[in-house]
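Work Package 3 (structural annotation) set out to generate three-dimensional models for the target panel prioritized at the project kickoff. During this period the team completed the workflow that converts sequence records into discrete structure tokens, so that structures can be stored uniformly alongside our sequence database. As a representative example, we reproduce one entry of 233 residues exactly as it appears in the project archive.
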Amino acid sequence: MEIWSGITEAFWLLVTLDADLVEITLRSLYVTLTALVIASAIALPLGALLAVRRFRARRITIAVLNALMGLPPVVVGLIVYVMLSRSGPFGVLGLLFTPTAMIIAQVIIIVPLIASIAHQALRELWSDYHDLLISMNTTQTQRVQALLWDGRRALLTASLAGFGRAIGEVGAIMVVGGNIDHHTRVLTTAIALETGKGEFSLALGLGFVLIAMAIAVNFAIHVIGRTERGGRW
């Protein structure tokens, strides 16, 4: 009965747009979307560059990139914490336990994922465009730009995958954000806190929002994948 009561209260919080629930959700979206934009700006050109350019350490770079996808997020959080702490090299900036620190951690976590997916997609595209772009005597920058534009559907899928990874992150966010009420509390950390307190209604409400976001992202990836196979944008 307690669980059913919690579910009922959770739906009521969603229907009435509870202030705490809305605040936490909006903060989560702000942190994750900001991290996604920054990470995509880094990872997508990197993936295209790895597809186009041949250099001595290319295979090692790709292997490292793939390995970093499995890096435990809590370790990323620890590294960022050390770098931003008072005794760290960037402690003077006072970024620890702020949304900015959370954004930095999420960027580090999702850049390898987005870059690896982008590289896999653009490598196949480059094999189709290689002869044409070489014959046109294009520069490396022009080749990267051409791949990024023509591979935009696959790259959007890569970014959505990064969003799905970031929005559900809790370990690194807890370490560098501190889960401070009205400041750094986001969906995942709030769910962990409310569950520990036994406040299942708000935890379930936040959980429903998180599940809805995950479903929406996966649905978007599915739709984009079908659109790409159908040759439509």
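Residues 89 and 139 are 38 Å apart (CA to CA).
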